[in-house]
């Protein structure tokens, strides 16, 4: 009998990866218990740490995504946009979308990476539209230029769900062959 190292669901000995969260399975039996005792990781002595609720993880993912996006935009954006002009700003927005969505996605359990990356991408684009609208209202200008910058931001953020989908597809194919 094997057990998921993340969620605790039990599987047969033939399985190697949890179908829920894609974490590796640990053997449960006399030889596995003896090995854990030798390593000082006996579950009766050390209580397992329970994972955070999904709601809290999504809140943390949104916060991390926001912080990383701002940091990348201001540090990379200023170093690229000032010397390179508009093409540098486009590259900075591409990197901002990619880094923000990927940083937030990696804080979620692996089984939620694809859905989480889509949610973070949509939230990021909605926030950008809101911030651009507020900025144009504050300046008192009527400019459609701010919506043009949505394209590189969306392109950068869209790379993450594509990579996660490809990784997930590869992982499923790998577990089917075992």
Number of domains: 2
Largest sheet: 3 strands, antiparallel
H/E topology pattern: EEEHHHHHH
Mass-distribution shape: elongated
User: From the structure provided, what is the oligomeric state, counting identical versus distinct chains?
Assistant: single chain
Mean pLDDT: 77
The total strand number stands at 3
Stretches where pLDDT falls below 50 for ≥5 residues? 40-49
- The termini sit apart by 17 Å
Fraction in beta strands = under 5%
What Rg is obtained from the alpha carbons, in whole angstroms?
A: 22 Å
Number of helices: 6
Q: Please bin the fraction of helical residues.
A: 55-70%
Q: Which strand order does the major sheet show?
A: 2-1-3
Helix-strand category = mainly alpha
Summarize the helices and strands and which ones pair or pack:
Layout: E1 2-4, E2 10-11, E3 25-27, H1 30-39, H2 54-84, H3 86-105, H4 113-139, H5 145-148, H6 150-177
Antiparallel strand pairs: 1-2, 1-3
Helix pairs in contact: 2-3, 2-4, 3-4, 3-6, 4-6
């Amino acid at each position: 009998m094997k057990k998921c190292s993340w969620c605790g669901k039990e599987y047969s000995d033939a399985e190697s990866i949890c179908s829920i969260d894609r974490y590796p399975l640990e053997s449960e039996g006399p030889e596995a218990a003896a090995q854990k005792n030798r390593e000082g990781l006996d579950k009766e002595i050390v209580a397992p740490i329970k994972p955070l609720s999904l709601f809290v993880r999504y809140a943390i993912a949104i916060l991390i995504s926001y912080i990383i996006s701002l940091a990348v935009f201001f540090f990379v954006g200023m170093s690229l946009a000032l010397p390179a002009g508009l093409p540098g700003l486009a590259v900075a927005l591409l990197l901002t979308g990619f880094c923000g969505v990927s940083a937030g996605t990696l804080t979620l359990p692996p089984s939620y990476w694809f859905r989480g990356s889509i949610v973070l991408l949509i939230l990021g684009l909605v926030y950008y539209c809101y911030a651009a609208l507020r900025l144009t209202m504050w300046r008192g200008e009527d400019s459609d230029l701010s919506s043009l910058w949505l394209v590189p931001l969306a392109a950068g953020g869209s790379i993450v769900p594509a990579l996660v989908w490809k990784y997930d597809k590869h992982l499923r194919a790998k577990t089917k062959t075992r």
